[in-house]
Amino acid sequence: MRKHVTTLVGSCLVVIAASATADDNLRISGFASLVGGTTLDGDGYWARLPDAAGQYATGWDFQTESRVGLQGIYTIDKKLSLTGQLMIRGVNDFEPQMEWLYATYRVTPDASVTAGRIRLPVYHYSDYMDVGIAYPWLRVPSDAYSLALTNIHGVSFNYNLDWDVGTTSFKFYTGQQHTDPNKLITAIEQYKTEQLYDDSGKYRGVRDIRTTKDYEDLKGIVVDTQIDWFNVRLSYLTGKEKFTYYAEGAGSTPLFGGAWADTRFIDVSVSADYGSIFAIAEYNDYDNIYSSWFTSLVYRTGNWSPYVFYSDFKGVLRFIAPGGVTAGFEDGVTGSLDDKYHSIGIGVRYNLNPRTAIKAEITDFTDEGDAAVFIDKDRDGNSDATAFAVSLDIAF
Amino acid sequence: MKKLNTLLASLLLSASACAEIAVIVNPGNSADISADDVKKIYLGKISSFSDGKDALPLTLKEGNALRGDFNQRALGKDDVRYVAYWSKMLFTGAGVPPKEMDSEQAIVELVATNPNTIGFVDSTNVSPNVKVVTSF
């Protein structure tokens, strides 16, 4: 039913878009990324993007990260507008889904209130991580972008301050979201503890578990300051969340989890866009769950932009299922598996024209923890991999 | 002959590179507008003039040479970075890019009649019914 409604809403939006493009009040624009990747070394590579996108197990995959976004902004009057963004993602079998739908009221030229389904703006690239044309990498270095929540239902208040030397934008927001299943966390848990092997020890897939994550009372602030070529962005979020883990066939009785816990997420990024150099470092800390960061250097020369990045993830929280850990490679002190990994990426972007870019990247993923991060055929908890991917990114 | 062609080409290039770009507003607009204000308005960092009135920036179609020069000189962005910047702004709901006009003449005509607009033209195309606030 839900799927049908989304499809219907999607088709309606397209129809509205098609029939109303002549209307001056409606601005339709869009973007697309066709991404193909393969694993060069290892059992498989997974970029761990929202909705569990970015999985490359065998051969070339052109679906998992490919996506098309269509956005319509309808200006109702000088103060009020409605924005809808429809995302068609390969990871969701190209079923259209309403990514955002929100109304914006401009209180003054510098202050506005937004209400509806909005992006959770915790990361530097949260708002436009789908828009490949707007950043240099094939994908935003994903080790540092692992939050299982992408969009929320809520309200935000935005204020732009121009203080002559620079500008600072403030965003205060509140909202909630329930995800069932939470595709990212479900897949992480499946590869971490639920890989299946036949009698001869051959990998045969993952157990069919389900996890959900509910987030409520989310309250956050983002302060983003730009001084000429220098940017610093601070993000702080608090709220409560509930993680629940259901075993295969267990129906609605959770195996564990199900309790509300206070949560806090902070993120800091510093970037410089100076001449032909773009450099950025971003760090985040998810209270009691993980900390991650990345840094990157991009050099622009004509239409070519080669880049390198380093990204790192270190898990703090360890779930212990009833009966303990049985996979055979548990941590001696706490009895559960730890998640720790980093990646080094080397890539290049080439601009065919201002609205079209092609990119290629080699990603070398090193698994330093006990837990398997993706397919682990030899059952040693090590999921090192080297992957190669290409993309075509456009804006229209 | 080849040398002459090269010489002519470089002369033409330097001529186009030296042409001044005038930023124009309606004569009734009495706000103070600095080069920095122009940059902020065209990048959507501010959406009003210093007197508080709404600012509606106008540009030319993508691929237009004058637009490319203006983006480079006034905003410090080449075409690729300009599109990347406005894609980010547009798809995050942070703002919409400057309105694209068909010609410099269309910009002059709209600026002459609409006090909220701000535009740019080659300085040789400035007409008496608009006011030049700065140039690049």
Condensed summary:
The complex is a heterodimer of chains A (396) and B (136). Chain A has 396 residues and is mainly β. Chain A has helices at 2-20, 183-193, and strands spanning 26-42, 45-46, 55-56, 67-75, 80-89, 96-108, 111-119, 151-162, 167-179, 195-197, 203-206, 210-227, 230-246, 256-274, 277-286, 290-299, 304-315, 340-353, 356-367, 385-395.
Number of strands of chain B: 5
Shape of chain A: globular
The portion of residues assigned to helices of chain A is under 10%
Q: Which fold name is given in CATH as the topology of chain B?
A: D-Maltodextrin-Binding Protein, domain 2
Structural class of chain B: alpha/beta
Task: Give a topology summary.
The complex is a heterodimer of chains A (396) and B (136).
Chain A: H1 2-20, E1 26-42, E2 45-46, E3 55-56, E4 67-75, E5 80-89, E6 96-108, E7 111-119, E8 151-162, E9 167-179, H2 183-193, E10 195-197, E11 203-206, E12 210-227, E13 230-246, E14 256-274, E15 277-286, E16 290-299, E17 304-315, E18 340-353, E19 356-367, E20 385-395
Antiparallel strand pairs in A: 1-4, 1-20, 2-3, 4-5, 5-6, 6-7, 7-8, 8-9, 9-12, 10-11, 12-13, 13-14, 14-15, 15-16, 16-17, 17-18, 18-19, 19-20
Chain B: H1 2-18, E1 21-25, H2 35-42, E2 56-60, H3 65-75, H4 79-91, E3 99-101, H5 104-113, E4 117-122, E5 131-135
Parallel strand pairs in B: 2-3, 2-4
Antiparallel strand pairs in B: 1-4, 1-5
Protein name (chain B): Phosphate ABC transporter substrate-binding protein
Organism (chain B): Pseudobowmanella zhangzhouensis
Signal peptide (chain B): 1-19
Which labels suit this protein?
heterodimer, A: 396 residues, mainly beta, Porin, 16-stranded antiparallel barrel, globular, B: 136 residues, alpha/beta, 5-stranded mixed beta sheet, 5 strands
